[in-house]
UniProtKB/TrEMBL annotation:
Gene3D superfamilies the UniProt entry points to: P-loop containing nucleotide triphosphate hydrolases
Keyword entries, A-Z: ATP-binding, Nucleotide-binding
Protein name per its UniProtKB record: Putative ATPase with chaperone activity
Transmembrane segments: none
InterPro entries (alphabetical): AAA+_ATPase, CHLI-like, MCM_dom, Mg_chelatse_chII-like_cat_dom, P-loop_NTPase
Transferase found in the keyword field: no
SMART domains linked: AAA
Domain AAA+ ATPase: residue ranges: 49-203
Source superkingdom: Bacteria
Amino acid sequence: MALANHFRGTQVLSRPEPSIRANAAILPDLAEIKGQESAKRALEVAAAGGHNLLMVGPPGSGKSMLAARLPSILLPLSAAELLEVSMVHSIAGQLTGGKLSDRRPFRTPHHSATMAALVGGGLRARPGEASLAHHGVLFLDEFPEFTPQALDALRQPLEDGECVIARANHRVSYPAKFQLIAAMNPAAAAWRASRATPAPAARAA
């Protein structure tokens, strides 16, 4: 009724105020890390330029700890970015109480995640982790453990900034401009390289 009166000119509705979700948890801070000066410098350069980053180191060297602190040195979402992020999260059913958050998304899918889980899909073509990380960070730990199909599916979002999901009766495009941070162990890197390098030809005696 109030809306009808507003359009008739008999009542003026007040301008709606956006509701920002209170951030209960404090972000892990990069300043908490002692040492690791080269790694912290790499994170700062990546944050300043929006660069993707691959961290290679033995287990327990702090790769995941460093990645979790990247959002603490990223700028807050602008008004336009906040609206885009909130719309994607609303479609995915992850907007709690309809309230917005000015924090940049930080998504950490497990290495068993399927291609549909990363780029989107399902019966209703819901957004995947790449779109849920829009204007934020997508962290892939144990990088070589992801299936080749899942990693290949991230090529288009990295190049075009969107995930396109095609179905028989419709085509959906979700934004996916994210910063990719990956981590892996040196042993896994060497194993992958050995599989990619062809074996030398045998010589006749």
